[in-house]
Amino acid sequence: MATINLGSIKFNWKGDYAAGTAYAVDDVVNSSGTSYVCVAASTGNAPPNSTYWNVMAQGGSDGSDGTDLTTTLTTQGDILYRDGSGLQRLPKGTAGQVLQMNSGATAPEYATASGGKILQIKLNTSNATQYSTSSSSYVDVGAAYTIVITPTSATSRMLIHVQFANQTSGNRTYYDIEKGGDAGGTIHLSSVVSGADSISNNEQVSAGGNGFDTFQWIDDIGSTNELTYKLRHRNGAGVNSHVGVAGSANFMYVMELAGDLF
Asked: Which of 43, 135, 170, 230 is most buried by a 10 A CB count?
């Protein structure tokens, strides 16, 4: 009958490897954080000599090579990422910032969020106000068609939109936008169009004609000066003309657009 040595049916933990100790098969030692099992009787043949030892359990990193997360991440809100050499820490951003890729597309970074393309809007409505003139020279229509706005950027553009009902008798009414506050002085937008008398005109040939005007203008501003936009009108032959006939949809707005929108 075969004889079984009950002392050899399990691994024998021997602690740290010692060069002067004789090791038998199935002895297990620790060497530099990794455990090794003896596969051939040996004295003085230190792990990881594979003739005598097999790895039983591989030791992990002690953090000395920069792979320990507790030493890389040091502050609440830190983010871990890898660059070309190893793990790196990205400190948290400030309130309102967003996470984005850097310009070289090699690492994350925090940046201030873009404000979008529509930066601000100023709106006036005048559904119940009617303005009239019989002047043959341009005059301001009135307060409801005057908008004051301060640009947030010199590279912005202003979109000016005016909509109103009008009424006159048998003659033309002309409309223009005046811009004040520009670095170059007061500007009439009709004057920047070669040969134009106005940016809009409406002719009514009946005794009590009614019409409707709407137009838009894009203005390149070039500064952050406070700007005032006014709708002006004049009459062609001395009869009364009216802007903003009561009960109609009459309004004016100026919208600041980001300069890279178009």
From this structure: 230
